[in-house]
Amino acid sequence: MDSSNSRLHLNACTGHDDNRSGKREVVDEMDFFADNKEIEDDVEGDNGSPKLSRPSSSLDFSHVNTDLLLLTTTANTNDRIDPSLVGMGTSSNPEQREKCEIRVLRSELEKMSLENERLKEMLNEETNKYNNLRMHLITMMRQNQEQQQQTIHRNHRNSDQIEINRNYHADTTDDHHHRASPEGRENHGPTTDKEMLDDPNRNVDQAAAEATIKKARVSVRARCEGNMITDGCQWRKYGQKIAKGNPCPRAYYRCTMAAGCPVRKQVQRCADDKHILITTYEGTHNHPLPPAAMAMASTTSSAARMLLSGSMPSADGLMNPNLLAQTILPCSSHMATISASAPFPTVTLDLTQSPNPLQFPNIPSNQYPFPFTTNALLPQILSQAFHNQTRFSGLQMSQETDQGRQSQLNDTANALAADPNFTAALVAAISSLVANNSNNNNNNNNNNNNNMANDNASNNNGSSVNPSNNNNL
DNA sequence: CGTTTTTGACCAGCGC
DNA sequence: GCGCTGGTCAAAAACG
Questions:
Q1: Which bases of chain C are under 7 A from a protein CB atom?
Q2: How large is the greatest C-alpha to C-alpha distance in chain A, in angstroms?
Q3: How far is the CA of A252 from the C1' of C10 (A)?
Q4: What is the share, in percent, of chain A residues with pLDDT greater than 90?
């Protein structure tokens, strides 16, 4: 108990002002006893000297809060009691009150944080469930679509086969079998569709077709300072070679998101422009993919089917990829090519140039490798592309369903466009649309490298491999 | 210590 | 058959 407390106690009891350190506090104390001021005046003598020896009988000390002594025990020498707090019996110090409030706020903050964490966990859980369901739905839809396409294709060809020269049909079907067997094995299977349908060895043909699909590739040319474009998958490097005609080594990666996944990709810098990275994908994933990887993953398989379809005979004649692509993406131009004349049929997306200088002003490549990233048209383009994909797919949908789907596609496109890490995969998605449409229209690929529609998409420099690979690429 | 990368060796396809 | 080339394997090294 320091002297100030003793002094304060004295003041509270007597109202005597012996405070030499601050008058204001004394006044406040006096205000606290305002009700008894008259009495106190009577207690004091005319000369101001205390008259403690003559206590008034009218004094009622019951009004004096005895807590005062206790409340001031923690006050330092320079502190005085806040009269508004005196009598409350809880806190007499603003700092204490602030500390108390801070403790309360912290407690509330902790509670909110815990609640936030809990909600985050719930959100993640629901998001995972949603993604899984979405993946499952997409897979089911794709399978359904393929089954319908196959049915339509068979019916179409069966109805046409009377009009088609039988020898030609036999030759082209055989050619298809040759194409479906990249290893060059002889295939003397059935020569008509009916025979094919009835052929018990048709599974062998399907296996050959699958082999072709596996060999079909999607190549993406993009300006990228990093060693790889981000496509949402995890890759492991398993080899590197110096390819002929390019001093830059070619790196070989395989997907490691699941054991036995057949998907592989090659990454190589362009010989002419070291800033251009050429990424070639091959195969179809055999495992669930994160949303960021779905577009690219579907691209390779779709492109493979497209190219396989392009090798098939058709009474519709040769397809025009450029026209087809313009139908899919009317605002696009010359960003993609299809080539089945290469050792492996390949869809090439050239993302190193802007199709429309007015639409896509020059942006430093190190900032926005693909102008698409910052372009507001991306969601519209994607949505339109997805919509057109559905429209061309042959699926019969009511207008209401179509509208609802369009809304969902718009949301999806917006979400995709907002994620810069997703852009490379979006590019692939566009090519996937081209692939599906060509497949659905049952056209041939005439290997003329016609330009296909595609708008810019963006890229980023993320990589799932060790950055040390930069030295090699 | 497990995983990933590096890198030389090996294999298959293709052209001559 | 031989050589070239692309692609893959696998042991060693590097990494975290």
A1: 4-10, 15-16
A2: 137
A3: 15
A4: 3
Alpha helices in A15-90 (DSSP H): 23-32, 37-43, 67-71
Is residue A76 within 8 A of residue A92, CB to CB? The reply is no
Strand nucleotide closest to residue A239 (CA to C1') = C8
Q: In whole angstroms, how far apart are CA A462 and each of A133, A435, A459?
A: 27, 27, 9
Residue A238: per-residue pLDDT = 92
Q: Kindly state the tokens that stand for A387.
A: 């919509």
Indicate whether this model's pTM tops 0.85: no
CA A8 to chain centroid, in Å, comes to 66
* Gap from A344 CA to B13 C1', Å: 13
Rounded to whole angstroms, the Cα distance separating A225 from A207 reads: 39
Rounded alpha-carbon distances, angstroms, from residue A157 to A154, A173, A179, A307: 5, 12, 19, 18
What percent helix, strand, coil does chain A show, rounded to 5?
50, 10, 40
Distance between the alpha carbon (CA) of A98 and the C1' atom of C11, Å: 68
Q: Note the CA–C1' distance, A257 to B1, in angstroms.
A: 22
Which residues face A242 on adjacent strands?
A: A249
Q: Which nucleotides of B are covered by protein (CB under 7 A)?
A: 4-9, 13-14
Q: How many CB atoms lie within 10 A of CB A410?
A: 17
**Residue A263 near residue A255 (C-beta atoms within 8 A):** yes
Ranking A25-39, A149-163, A236-250, A326-340 by mean pLDDT, the lowest is: A25-39
What's the pLDDT score for residue A303?
A: 60
Q: Distance (Å) from CA A453 to C1' C8?
A: 35
Footprint of strand B on the protein (CB under 7 A): A 182-184, 235-241, 251, 256, 465-466, 468-469, 471-472
pLDDT tens string A412-464 = 445 444 444 444 555 555 444 444 443 443 333 333 333 333 333 333 333 33
- Residue A423: CB atoms within 10 Å: 29
